[in-house]
Write a structure and sequence with these properties.
InterPro entries: NAD(P)-bd_dom_sf, Sc_DH/Rdtase_CS, SDR_fam, SDR_oxidoreductase. The chain has about 290 residues and is an alpha/beta fold. It has eleven helices and seven strands.
């Protein structure tokens, strides 16, 4: 039986990825900070008799990652796939966010991946095969306020993954970057909620409105899970994989502008910004007034 370690598996993309792999016959090691909170996953395991074991692992901790993956390797002997999905987001203007918030995001989204990669590479190299899938985002190519800390972490994941792919291809270990667009997850819902501490920058609210409008026709997290499984099951060495109906359009949208055009457009007044979003994506993200 092939085996997979999935981080951040208690909800969203991680939960559905765990289910997809288990239904395909994998032995799934679903890791998360708080297994007691994974009620939905536990319910699915019981209902479908799935081969999923839940493990407490905090990707922010060297000790936690080393101990958990060492125990998994002791049980399984080998690990065929590692899915680095665990991630967090903090939003606000750079001026107003605390330095500690930037550090939190980078610790989980970037250093967490490094810890997990280092913990499995020895075993994968010894067996002469493996697949490491890092969940990034279109934000790995597109930086907007109020998501500067999140985008910075995903830009870093992209760079790390490129270098890693070069280092481990000689050992027959594949690396893939999954780049979702706006997916219906708790994180996306939080961005759309306008739950900001921002007082100095009006441009942050319109990004919240963009998410809110997009989520009226939500893309389910299962779509990303199926893409991750497809990559693991394939023998493709393709590095980047946009996922979702808006992912490639968002990437092409950004690529169509120079850096200066991108900055200028994001600094325009609200009417011009909303007009271009509607023209390019057919999304009327303007705030609705209620009477």
């Amino acid at each position: 039986m092939r085996s997979v370690i999935i981080t951040g598996a208690n909800r969203g993309i991680g939960l559905h990825t765990s289910l997809s792999f288990a239904r395909k016959g994998y032995k799934v090691y679903a890791t998360m900070r708080k297994p007691d909170s994974a009620d939905e996953l536990q319910k699915k395991i019981s209902e479908e008799s799935l081969s999923i074991s839940m493990h407490q692992m905090d990707v922010d901790s060297d000790e936690s990652v080393d101990q958990c993956i060492r125990e998994i390797l002791k049980e399984s002997g080998t690990i065929d796939v590692l899915v680095n999905n665990a991630g967090i987001e903090r939003h606000g203007t750079i001026e107003e966010m605390e330095i500690s918030q930037f550090k939190e995001v980078m610790e989980t989204n970037y250093f967490g991946i490094i810890r997990c990669v280092k913990a499995v590479l020895g075993a994968m190299r010894k067996q002469g095969s493996g697949c490491i899938i890092n969940v990034s985002s279109v934000a790995g190519n597109i930086s907007n306020s109020p998501l500067s800390s999140y985008a910075a972490s995903k830009f870093a994941v992209e760079a790390l993954s490129e270098a890693l792919a070069q280092e481990i291809k000689p050992y027959n270990i594949r690396v893939a970057i999954v780049k979702p667009g706006i997916i219906d997850t708790d994180m996306a819902r939080d961005i759309s909620s306008k739950n900001y501490t921002v007082t100095r920058s009006p441009i942050t609210e319109r990004f919240s409105n963009l998410f809110k409008e997009s989520l009226k026709h939500p893309t389910h997290a299962n779509l990303v899970a199926e893409k991750i499984l497809e990559i693991a099951e394939s023998d493709s060495w393709k590095l980047r994989h946009p996922v979702g109906p808006d992912a490639q359009p968002f990437l092409e949208w950004r690529a169509s502008m120079s850096d200066e055009d991108w900055v200028d457009w994001n600094a325009v007044n609200d009417d011009e910004w909303y007009e271009k979003v509607e023209k390019d994506f057919g999304l009327n993200a303007r705030p609705r007034t209620t009477k």
